[in-house]
Amino acid sequence: MRLAYERSPSISLPYRFFASGLLFAILVSAAVMFLGEELWVSRWNPATIAAVHLYAIGFMLHTMIGALFQILPVATGGELPMAPRVARLTHPLLIVAAISLPAGMWRQAHALLILGTVAVVIGLSLFLGAAAVAMGRARARGPSFIAVACALLSLAVGLALGAWAVAGLLGASLDFISAVRLHAGWMLGAWAGSLLAGVAFVVVPMFQATPEFPRVVVRWLAPALVAAGLCMTVPLAGAPAAMLPLGLWVFAAAILVFAMTVLRLQRRRRRARTDATLWYWRLAMLCAAAFALGLAWAGMARRDLSLPLGVLLLHGVFGSAIAGMFYKIVPFLNWLYLQERVSNAPKIDRMIPARAQAAQFTLHVVALAALLGASLWPALGSLAGGVMLAGYAALAWNVMRGMWRCRELTAGTRANAARRV
């Protein structure tokens, strides 16, 4: 598949989302350490809901929106209209939402909930409108097109369900528990899962030297995740209640198929050398398989495993995949940017030291084990938060050092040119 690198936006556009996402990852880690046992009492605890949204909006949503500003024009050829202006408007609105919504949930402050909801609805509506135009302009209907289209549709549905759930918190008469479950299913399953798949269809063969994904997986994985969301939603409209567990089974099966496919492709890779990105993606896929099997078992045994499953999905799957892609996307974007500006641009694998990546990966794995332990033994909560904080602080340092490296090289070239003049 040919990628339209000439359509890449300014490097500052995705980087602003990446930088704020990393800072929010540090903030949520500090919150996990500070809250300690309180966070692990119940999934419905206000502190737990707040921490999940701080991670999902602050870290995940920021990095995913930033990635889409890069992926949409490069992978599909469809440029977002007025992309710099959309980014300048969307970015601060998402920051406001990432702060005010979790704070409002934790303190049950209605004013903060309203502010955060308005900010995220306006910010994501602006982005979704621009993304819809870009998808309509798409020149290439490659492997990522279907997955990205499903992700954007799911983001719109999940956003509406989230606003509906907030209305329940503010006192509206509705089934709040169902609204929250559907919101989580559409956002973490259909939206984030479809986007992760869409990114994987391009970057796993590209950066990990694997064969291409099977066509059946490329064509049907993301639609299956959307179908799972629909199955969980239609009982609200009078469909049989059995559609809800069917949706969970479809979701678990799709995630398991995706995880096993990536692991199988990695075993067939053409390059013997390993790096942090490969380790991260293997960890993410192992966590995805464990999550899918755990979700299925919890449904059959009627056991509440929401806390350990949440750790596996958030930190294990999405946190690992995002961290692994940082170590490839940032050096690669640096390299693309420097090609036309610096005569001796460093190689991609020299942008972020390999030892620093390996050390940070170790912290990430220890944090995952500690968080899983805390989900079963809440007394480990503060310890888990401390290790998590160390891991995300190291990730932020490594990635931002890579961003600064690009700026330093560009500034040095400009200074040399000025001295010649």
Q: Calculate Rg over CA atoms.
A: 21 Å
Separate helix tally: 12
| Tally of DSSP β-strands | 0
Poorly predicted parts: none
SSE-based structural type: mainly alpha
Number of domains: 1
Largest sheet: none
Task: Please tell me the overall pLDDT.
Answer: 91
Portion of residues in beta strands equals under 5%
What this model shows, in words?
The structure is a single chain. This protein is mainly alpha-helical and 421 residues long. It has a single domain, classed as Cytochrome C Oxidase, Chain A (Up-down Bundle). Helix content is 80%, strand content 0%. The chain has twelve helices and no strands. The longest helix is centred in the last third of the chain and has 40 residues, at 381-420. It is globular and about 65 Å long. The protein starts with 11 loop residues before the first helix and ends with a helix.
Write the layout of secondary structure elements.
Elements: H1 12-35, H2 46-76, H3 83-107, H4 110-137, H5 143-169, H6 176-208, H7 215-233, H8 243-267, H9 276-301, H10 306-339, H11 354-376, H12 381-420
Helix pairs in contact: 1-2, 1-3, 1-12, 2-3, 2-4, 2-10, 3-4, 4-5, 5-6, 5-7, 6-7, 6-8, 6-10, 7-8, 8-9, 9-10, 9-11, 10-11, 10-12, 11-12
